[in-house]
Amino acid sequence: MHSFQIMVPGASAADSVEIKSPFDGAVVGTVERIDDRGAEQALVNADALFKDRSRWLPVHERVAVLEKTAELMQAQFDELVNLALSEGGKPFADSQVEVARAIDGVKNCIECVRSEHGTKIPMGINPASMNRLAMTSHEPIGLVMAVSAFNHPLNLIVHQVGPAVASGCPVIVKPASDTALSCFKFVELLREAGLPEEYAQAVVVSSNDIATDMVTDSRIAFFSFIGSGNVGWMLKSKLAPGTRCALEHGGAAPAIVAEDADLDAMLPLLAKGGFYHAGQVCVSVQRIFAHHSIAEEIATRLGEMANALKVGDPADPATEVGPIIRHKETDRVAEWVDEAVAAGAQLIAGGAKISDAFYQPTVLLNPPATVSLSKHEIFGPVISVNSYEDMDQAIALANDVPYSFQAAVMTQDIDKAMYAYRRLNAAAVMVNDHTAFRVD
């Protein structure tokens, strides 16, 4: 069991919180929490550091810290896998991938520091700019407040904390309280690699009001958020004037399968993208729009794949689908599936709770557009297949949600692929790959 003390120099712990396995409820670690006084101390520490430019870390020292951190992570690879697995429930093989990605993410931060630079601004192009030279350079923006989600307890933290360290910004990071161990471990490794303590402070707070006060404090220069849209937009609306932010919310990622798609190659990708981490991925394959000539075949074959998946202990290397991290969400997933079936969806596979922690990998055919799982992110192991008549209808259906930052189209016709690419309302469109693919 891992136990972490508070990581706020000069503060005292208010209490501690137990971190429990979503698989069996066993206590896998403890983390000390701070109260409002500890939160203020964290802000004072980071603000004082940033205001004292003599304490700013030069680029070569930041690079050295990140290089050493990557080395330490590689040396403790198995421990990081087991830590993330124990609190997050992601199956063993997938947790190995997460840790490998996290290490690569730290290395990416180094590459950004080495390659990104200012630019020369053209002068002398009009009489007013004659005999002048202008250029830009990068410098730290200021204190970063990062609030993270629970579904990838190590990799999401690296995405938020790594760039702050690379940029020379002091960062306060608040992980989800039910998956805080990996975050505290990562900050511990940064400090072991030579990062001064005030540069990265991991905090778990004793109330949501304290977290809101920290995020909206005028000393925060940049707010990084990963989590639900409702919370993210609410916090953004309360930011102090001048605070910049980046919000990452979920989506109901659509995948269009054309009649000429290579199903033998595509279906395993769709199954992986939908059932990976029990569907607890913000770009999980949730809604498939298949040409009417193949929709039933796709649903049937995906159902067979769902039934063949091994569901169980994430520590078992053979497990393919682990638990739902927050058990109340298991009931919500069940309610949404039951609602869709009652409204006329055909249940192809699954459709039932296994326990408080597990829900069967589920495939539905033609759920109505009005039900919850057709409109909102389900964040569970559920794939719906809807039939369409022509590509324009498929695109209209795929775009008929308030958010969809990744989408996919599967076809062997380059013209169809490009047609869909130009019309899908998504920030990234995958061609012949699932929606959960991404590069850090």
Write up what this structure looks like.
This protein is an alpha/beta fold and 440 residues long. It folds into 2 domains: 2-117 and 139-248, Aldehyde Dehydrogenase, Chain A, domain 1; 254-431, Aldehyde Dehydrogenase, Chain A, domain 2 (3-Layer(aba) Sandwich). 40% of the residues lie in helices and 17% in strands. The protein has helices at residues 36-51, 59-75, 77-88, 92-115, 155-167, 181-192, 208-215, 229-237, 263-275, 295-308, 327-342, 372-375, 391-399, 414-423, and strands at 2-4, 15-20, 27-33, 120-121, 134-135, 144-147, 171-174, 200-202, 222-226, 244-248, 254-257, 287-291, 346-349, 362-365, 382-388, 406-410, 428-431. Strand 2 (15-20) and strand 3 form a beta hairpin. The longest helix is centred in the N-terminal third of the chain and has 24 residues, at 92-115. The chain starts with a strand and ends in a 9-residue tail after the last strand.
Low-confidence stretches: none
State the name of the first-level CATH class of the largest domain. Answer: Alpha Beta
Instruction: Give average pLDDT, whole number.
Output: 95
Question: In total, how many beta strands?
Answer: 17
Oligomer: single chain
- CATH architectural designation of the largest domain: 3-Layer(aba) Sandwich
Approximate shape:
globular
Termini separation: 30 Å
Based on secondary structure, the structural category is alpha/beta
Across the major sheet, the strand order is: 13-14-15-12-11-16-17
User: For the report, how would you describe the main beta sheet?
Assistant: 7 strands, mixed
Number of domain units: 2
Strand portion, in percent? Answer: 15-25%
* CA radius of gyration: 23 Å
CATH topology of the largest domain: Aldehyde Dehydrogenase, Chain A, domain 1
By CATH, the superfamily of the largest domain comes out as Aldehyde Dehydrogenase, Chain A, domain 1
Percent helix range: 40-55%
